[in-house]
Amino acid sequence: xxxxxxxxxxxxxxxxxxxxxxxxxxxxxxxxxxxxxxxxxxxxxxxxxxxxxxxxxxxxxxxxxxxxxxxxxxxxxxxxxxx
Length: 83
Hints:
Elements: H1 25-30, H2 37-60, H3 70-82
């Protein structure tokens, strides 16, 4: 009487397998959706704006903790809506 398991042959590692990276199944399951073109451009534009703001804050000597509050977010939103 045979066991209930599958009859699949076991996988043996060969010499080329040392060059292959281990696949993390948990992280690959999370990344099932492909990024579309709008998300890519939005991310690039967001990164550029954040860099400009960080450079300005650094150049004028404003403490970085000054921009970490709701008032700063509100004024940036208002500036963005104004254009």
